[in-house]
């Protein structure tokens, strides 16, 4: 298991541009939109910045779940690394655990970086228990992203996997409230988002 984790660390380091973009783009959106004045009252402004910080954290995590996770599984199949694992003494459970651990570390880095930007750049203030609780809930919600990523990895064609991943990812971000508040949608569709869409509930952790 230790050797597998070391291999995953090497692979993460080799793909550092993707890693940086998956965190940097949501942080950039957060800095851009949180700098806009929502009104003369500072309290709604603070609430918006806090909410958007949590939303962009979830957005960053979802990109790892929808793209990084299924692509790393598919890469191991095309490069026959998975075949080697299946014919070695290493258990397939250890292989998948190492992959999940790698993605969970990506999630944790996304949470830490975005929270630090919110605290030190946008002056977001919360009790320590709220910081830890929000991070823990976001990390727990990452199981949803991992599930979606695992389903996408079952698609045989990499091109179709990319198309389906982008469609589902974009649709989920829009109707889940990641890119715009759910209140901006027609009233007749808002109850559907609130009652049944997992991204909406993830974005409400804040």
Question: Which terms would index this structure?
Answer:
globular, 9 helices, mainly alpha, 206 residues, single chain
Textual characterization of the structure:
Helices cover 78% and strands 0% of the residues. The protein has 206 residues and is mainly alpha-helical. The two termini are 35 Å apart. It is built from nine helices and no strands. Helix 2 packs antiparallel against helix 3, helix 2 runs parallel beside helix 5 and helix 3 runs parallel beside helix 6.
What's the total number of strands? 0
Point out poorly predicted stretches: none
Question: Shape, please?
Answer: globular
Q: Kindly, what is the distance between the CA atoms of the first and last residues, rounded to a whole number of angstroms? A: 35 Å
Topology as a string of helices (H) and strands (E): HHHHHHHHH
Question: Short summary of the structure?
Answer:
The protein has 206 residues and is mostly helical.
Helices, strands, pairings?
Elements: H1 2-14, H2 16-34, H3 42-78, H4 81-86, H5 92-120, H6 128-152, H7 158-175, H8 190-196, H9 198-203
Helix pairs in contact: 1-5, 2-3, 2-5, 3-5, 3-6, 3-7, 5-6
């Amino acid at each position: 298991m230790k050797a597998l984790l070391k291999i995953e660390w090497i692979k993460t380091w080799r793909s550092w541009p993707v890693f940086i973009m998956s965190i940097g783009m949501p942080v950039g959106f957060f800095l851009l939109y949180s700098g806009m004045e929502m009104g003369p009252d500072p309290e709604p402004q603070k609430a918006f910045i806090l909410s958007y910080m949590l939303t962009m954290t979830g957005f960053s995590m979802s990109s790892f779940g929808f793209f990084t996770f299924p692509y790393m599984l598919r890469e191991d199949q095309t490069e026959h690394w998975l075949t080697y694992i299946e014919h070695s003494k290493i258990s397939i459970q250890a292989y998948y655990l190492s992959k999940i651990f790698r993605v969970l570390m990506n999630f944790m880095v996304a949470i830490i970086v975005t929270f630090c930007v919110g605290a030190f750049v946008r002056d977001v203030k919360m009790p320590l228990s709220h910081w830890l609780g929000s991070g823990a809930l976001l990390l727990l919600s990452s199981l949803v992203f991992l599930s979606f990523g695992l389903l996408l990895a079952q698609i045989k064609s990499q091109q179709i996997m990319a198309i389906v991943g982008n469609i589902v990812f974009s649709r989920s971000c829009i109707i889940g409230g990641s890119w715009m508040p759910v209140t901006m949608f027609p009233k007749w569709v808002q109850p559907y988002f609130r009652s049944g869409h997992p991204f909406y509930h993830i974005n409400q952790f804040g």
